[in-house]
Every structure is written in structure tokens, then in C-alpha cells.
Amino acid sequence: MLERSHLALIRAVVAHGTLTRAADALCLSQSALSHAARKLEEQVGTPLWVKEGRSLRLTQAGSYLHQLAQNLLPQFEHAENQLRHYAGGGQGLLRIGMECHPCYQWLLRVVAPYLAAWPRVDVDVKQQFQFKGVAALYAYEIDMLITPDPVFGERLVFTPVFDYEQVLVVASDHPLARQTVAYPADLEKETLITYPVPTERLDIYQAFLLPANRGVAAHKTIETTEILLQMVAAGRGVTALPRWLIEQQAAEMPLVCLRLGEEGIFKHIYLGVREDEREVDYIAGFSRIAAELQG
Asked: pLDDT by residue (tens digit) across 125-177?
């Protein structure tokens, strides 16, 4: 019978590459892990991996079990974490994934009233510039995804909770600061500064430059909002950010916002959850507080 420990063994071997390192990760001796691996192969009746030098390569059967481990083990771990939380007197743990850096600034406005309203719920935030949010929702690695770019799929629900305008930001002494609207051709000699995300995730490219078949002179990336804004204020480049973020964080800085095109670029921040958990009280409570703050 296939057991959870078998799936953990497969996952560890793939993650660490060799039985020795997998044994260390699982706090087992190498001989014990080798024995368990041989017994598993005997039980399923087919090899699960082949040796290539000092490393192991999964067979087709091994790849199937590894995919099963990737799908099921996070759900077990999530359930155990929740049960430990209940046993410790808590009500729940809301794990939030962030798919856009400015969303973090928005999240800060929501977390304080949420924690006050739900004193027995903890919040954990996972933030990566190339965070695979939808996959993490499906894999039970997070409970909620905050994103401006929802991917509607089976068993997921995305709700818009905050709307904003994406604008071009330039220094107040920049030649473009005399305009109220920026056009794609205006950026051809500019250095564009953005967060380190792929261009296919940047609205300034996808909704503004590429449709007009235009580009920029150079593209630089900076991770922190504060340094990015300081660079723009110093005339080292231009950027595109939500208008509300500039009004909130840079009201005293020598910066000017321009509409991107005559119609502008308007976006929404969405909260994505698994459909069967959308009515869980503390998850629904977060969505409600987020919507109330927008209103």
C-alpha cells in the first residue's frame, strides 16, 4: 500500500539529487533510506529511478509518484499546520501570496484592521517577484493570492477589491513633467526602471509600449520601492507605478505622474482563493475588510 512516507521519500530524492543528501534531509541513515527505496520499488513492481553517476533520474513511474507527492504532501502539511494552530488555541492561519510588489503596500493597510478583527488568526505572507501564485493556490502552499493579473481556472475564485490607475512617474524637472499624458514615443530615449519581473508581467510593456511597437532606450530593475523612487527623483530614469502608491509614499518627493495614453491604464487588485474555501470565516473576513477599506 502506498503511504505518505513513500511520497516524502520520492520528493526528498528529487529535491536533493542523491540518496545520501535525501537521507540527511529526512533525518535517516543512508542504509535505512536505501532499504526503504528498494522496498518501495518491490512493492510497486517497477523501478522508480536509475543511477546516472552519483545522481538519480526518475523513471516514468517515479515521475508519476513525484507529481503525486507534489500535489498531496502540501495538503497534508497544510492540514497539520492548521490542526497544530487549533491545538495551540488559535483559530487559523491565513497564508497570503503576493504577485506584485506594490500590492504589499496595499496589504499593509488591510492587515492591521484584519488582525484586530480576527485576534485568533495569524497571517503569513509569501512574496516573490516571480511568485507562481496560481500554482501555489492549487498546491495548497497559500490560501489567498493577491494579484493584479488573475488567471481564472477551475476551482479558483478571483474577486476585485481595489481599483487603481497605472501612471508614468518622472522627476519634477524632467522634460516630460510639463505634460499630463505620456505617449509610447515619449519613452524611446528613456531609461525605464521597474521591479525585477518579466516584461510579460509589466503593464508598461504589455498595455502601452508593445501595442504601439515602441520600446525604451534602457531597462533597469530595482527591488525596493523606496530606492526606485529615489532613482527616478534623481533623474536616473522613469517608472510606471500605481497612482495611489505615489500619492501615499512619495507625496513630498519631486515627482510628477502622467497618464499613460489618452485613455490611461486602469487595473484592479484581486483576491484569489480556492472555491471550496471562499466561505471559510476568516478568509471571507479578509475579503470583506479589504472591500470595506476600498469603499
From this structure: 887 655 578 888 888 889 999 998 888 888 899 999 888 999 999 999 999 99
In sequence order, the β-bridge partners of residue 242 are 166
- Domain covering 86-162+268-293 assigned CATH 3.30.360.10 in the classification: no
Residues 6+ apart with CB under 8 A from 287: 159, 161, 271, 273, 278
163-267 CATH, one of 2.30.40.10, 3.20.10.10, 3.40.50.720, 3.40.190.10: 3.40.190.10
Per-residue model confidence as pLDDT tens digits over 97-130: 988 877 888 888 899 999 999 888 889 988 765 5
Can you say whether residue 59 is alpha, beta or left, with left for phi > 0 and alpha for psi between -120 and 50 degrees?
beta
Fold classified for 4-85:
Arc Repressor Mutant, subunit A (1.10.10)
